[in-house]
Amino acid sequence: MPNTGQGTSCRKYCYVGLPNRHLTVGPGARIHLLADGFYRAHSIDALFESLARHAGPRTIGVILPGLLKDGSLGPRALKEAGGVALVQRPEDASFKEIPENAIEHDGPIDLIGSVDAIADEICRRVSPPAVETHRIKRPAASSSPANSPAVSTAPIPG
C-alpha cells in the first residue's frame, strides 16, 4: 500500500489494510487507517460499513476465506446502501468461517460462487455495456450482382 497517511484519496487504487489496523473510507473517498478498537477482529465489517456509508451503490464487496466472525455485518450494510455483495462458495474456501457467516447472517447476497465466478461477475458489473448491432440489408446497387446484397451493421438505438 502506498504511504497514504490519514485521509488520502483512494480512487483508482487497491488498498490492503495493515495488521492491527482497520482500513475504512470516509467522505470524499478518503481512506483512513484506524487503530484496532471497536471493530476488533471485524476489519471486513468496518471497511464494508464505511463503504456503504460513503460510496453506497458504487461498491462491490467480496468475502473470501478467513476465520472468526468477521464478515457477518458488512455485506448487509453494502446491500442496504445499494452496493453489491459477493461471497466465495464455502466448499471452495480453505477457511469456511467468514464465507459461512456472510451467507448465514447477511441476507441477500448477489453471488455465492467460485473465485473465477466472482471475478467474472466483477468484470461484468464494471465493464461498459457492449454496443449491440443488427444487420441492415441495403438494396443492391445496379452494378452489384443480384445474388450478393450489400449488408452493413448499425448500432441498435436505445
Oligomeric organization of the protein chains: single chain
* Biggest sheet overview: 3 strands, antiparallel
**Total number of helices:** 4
State the end-to-end CA separation.
42 Å
Classification by helices and strands: alpha/beta
Provide the succession of SSEs: EEEHEHEHEHEE
The CATH class designation is: Alpha Beta
Say what the CATH topology is.
Answer: Rossmann fold
Question: What CATH architecture do you see?
Answer: 3-Layer(aba) Sandwich
Query: Helix coverage percent of residues?
Result: 25-40%
- Which word captures the global form? elongated
- Major β-sheet strand ordering: 1-3-2
The beta-strand count equals: 8
Write the SSE topology:
Layout: E1 8-9, E2 21-26, E3 30-35, H1 43-54, E4 60-63, H2 74-80, E5 84-88, H3 97-105, E6 111-113, H4 115-126, E7 133-138, E8 150-155
Parallel strand pairs: 4-5, 5-6
Antiparallel strand pairs: 1-3, 2-3, 7-8
Helix pairs in contact: 1-2
Q: What this model shows, in words?
A:
With 158 residues, the chain is of the alpha/beta class. It has one domain (8-126): Rossmann fold. Helix content is 25%, strand content 24%. It has helices at 43-54, 74-80, 97-105, 115-126; strands at residues 8-9, 21-26, 30-35, 60-63, 84-88, 111-113, 133-138, 150-155. The strands form three sheets. It has a three-stranded antiparallel sheet. A three-stranded parallel sheet has the order 4-5-6, sandwiched between helices. The chain is elongated and about 75 Å long.
